[in-house]
Amino acid sequence: MRRAAVIIVLALAALPIPARGAKEAFKGELARIRVLGAEERLAYFGLRYFMNDHQKRQYLLLETAGERERWIENYWIDRDPTPATPENERRIEHEKRVALARRLFGLKKAPGWDARGETLIRWGMPSDRAETHGTVGFYEFTPPGEIWRYRAFDMIVQFSNFNLKGEFFYASDPVGRSSRRELDRYRNISDLAKYGVLQDLYPIEYMSPDEVKDLADWNPDEIDYVASPDTRMAAATFKDLIGRWEAEKLKRSVDNFYVYRKEYPEVYSFEIGQTLLPLYFDVAGFRGGGRTVRTEISFEVPVADLLFVRREGFLAAGVLFKVLVRDIENRVVAADSDLVEPRLPEGASAGAGLVPGQIVLPLEPGYYRIGVEARDRASGRRAAYRTNLELESYDRSPSLSDIQFASGIVESEEGGRFRKGPLQVVPHPARIYRTPFPLSIYFEIYGLDLSADGLAYYRVEYRIAALDRRRAGMVMERTPPATSSSFETSGFGASQPQRLTIATENLPEGRYRLVVTVTDRRSFRAATRSEDFSILK
Q: 344, 350 in Cβ contact below 8 A?
């Protein structure tokens, strides 16, 4: 069936209204901007759309160019979409957009470009760009302008060359929407003959009676087509229907400009159409050699979300995990990667398992910013996150390491991944356990008081409390602790590794908090740690 097309012309009759954000954000801003160098001014105006008043003030009150340069560097580090790699794709694309806005839509006054340049910096170049001609009438003047269409966002942006000097303004107020009445002109079908956009219509696909019957129960507008099949059959010509539908589509696209301006003030190319790789990660600290903390960053990726490639007699996938650690000043202090290559027998199903990985870094006690990434090498899907972490020195007596959740803890004399002395502790950062499989945890105890023969005596107590509220009649009540137990033990040395396996049969589905307390039976001092986990049926 041939594809039909309707040509409609859209005019920009609304007068340009400056955005409210264009005025001075705080007293003294303009004076501080004049102090900036040419390159600094260009960078500031490019970022000003996305900075709040506190950030603007903070940047402009810095005294030296070096301080301002470090501020910009830290600003982009916090927005890096790949925090475990040295490249910052967001900054690279932003700076290219600013340079392009200056080149294509440059002005000799601040900010250095017109509204088209601002739109380019926010969302990139449009899918379609068209000129609109101005008209002069006895009662009305319509300035020339441009229309930009972003197909990926279903968004239309309108510009007006109102002063006829080559400077384009937004055709309506993008902040306060005070020119909303101008948009009402597109609701009138008769106006569509004069105002509109070139639109392609999809071919009509006819359905058989059986197909109609199969879809009869799926009514997005909640219309009972079965009881009244002629409910929506209003008398109208084909041209009227097309005009009405096109008006609705056009209005939605124009309105999306306001939606994106508020909810998505900037969008970059790498964010469009990407499918994220599911990733669980966790960070646990243990006492290392000297003053260092053995920092274990553990990962899990669902097997079903990986792309397996056929090899000789098996299916193989590859997951690359990366970690980059910065200090409080955003200086890189450590980085590492780990390639995990799971295999499946040929013809096997991926199932519901998780692929674990782990990177171990020796770090000194302090405050760190950690960026983690995972990438499926076959499909290119990736995930990236950042977290803040404060590592303590474990110099208290006694003290506990972080609690590490595990999918399995076994004694093994073989080398390999996830080794902790004689144990192999496979991390489980998802912290989701299904009944009746037991809960497995690992932690280490430091600084125990020793007897004359070098023995430490201590008591371990754990308690599991529900975090979710459950209904008891008409009232939502928090359930009492579901599980509590303790035991006393001893061992040689002031440091003791400890593993626990806790039954989950009596835990209802929900979220829980595990609290572990270790008491030195000689000094009677205690240390406590707590972490959250979930139970699924």
A: yes
Final residue of a structural domain among 392, 427, 459: 392
How sure is the predictor about 481, in pLDDT bands with cuts at 50, 70 and 90?
low
- pLDDT, tens digit, 9 for 90 and up, residues 358-368: 999 999 999 99
User: Do residues 438 and 316 both lie within one domain?
Assistant: no
Read off the amino acid at residue 523.
Answer: S
Query: What residue ranges in 25-98 does DSSP mark as E strands?
Result: none
For the stretch 173-189, pLDDT in tens is: 554 443 444 334 333 32
Residue for token digits 């007293």?
A: 27
Indicate if 288 and 384 belong to the same structural domain: yes
Residues 6 or more apart whose Cβ sits within 8 Å of residue 313: 346
Asked if the structure places residue 237 within a domain, the reply is no
18 Rama class: left (phi>0) / alpha (psi -120 to 50) / beta: beta
The DSSP secondary structure of 427-450, one letter per residue, reads: E-TT-EEETTSPEEEEEEEE---B
Print the domain residue range for 479.
394-537
Q: Do 335 and 415 reside in the same domain of the chain? A: no
**Which structure tokens are listed for 450?**
């020793």
- Looking up residue 386, the CATH number of its domain turns out to be 2.60.40.10
Cα 69 versus chain centre, distance: 26
The verdict on residue 90 lying in a domain is yes
At 496 the three-state DSSP class reads: strand
Given a cut of 80, whether residue 44 has pLDDT beyond it is yes
Q: How confident is the model at residue 11 (pLDDT cuts 50, 70, 90)?
A: very low
Reference 159, options 19, 24, 7, 20; nearest CA is 19
Cross-strand pairs, 476:
471
Tell me: the pLDDT tens digits for 424-467?
999 999 999 998 889 999 999 999 999 999 999 999 999 999 98
Which DSSP string corresponds to 364-378?
-SEEEEEEEEEEETT
Answer yes or no: is 452 within a domain. yes
DSSP state at residue 221: T
Judge whether 307 and 378 are in contact, CB under 8 Å.
yes
pLDDT, one tens digit per residue, over 57-97 is 999 999 999 999 999 999 999 999 999 988 899 999 999 99
- DSSP code per residue over 395-417: -SSSEE---EEEEEEEE--S-ST
Q: Residue 397: CB partners within 8 Å, gap ≥ 6?
A: 446, 447, 448, 449, 520, 523, 525
Residue 462, pLDDT score: 95
How far apart (Å, rounded) are the C-alpha atoms in residues 253 and 125? 17
By CB neighbour count within 10 A (0-12 exposed, 13-18 middle, 19+ buried), where does 170 fall?
buried
Domain boundary among 392, 425, 459: 392
Looking at residue 198, what DSSP letter applies? -
Phi, psi values for residue 325, rounded to 5°: -115, 130
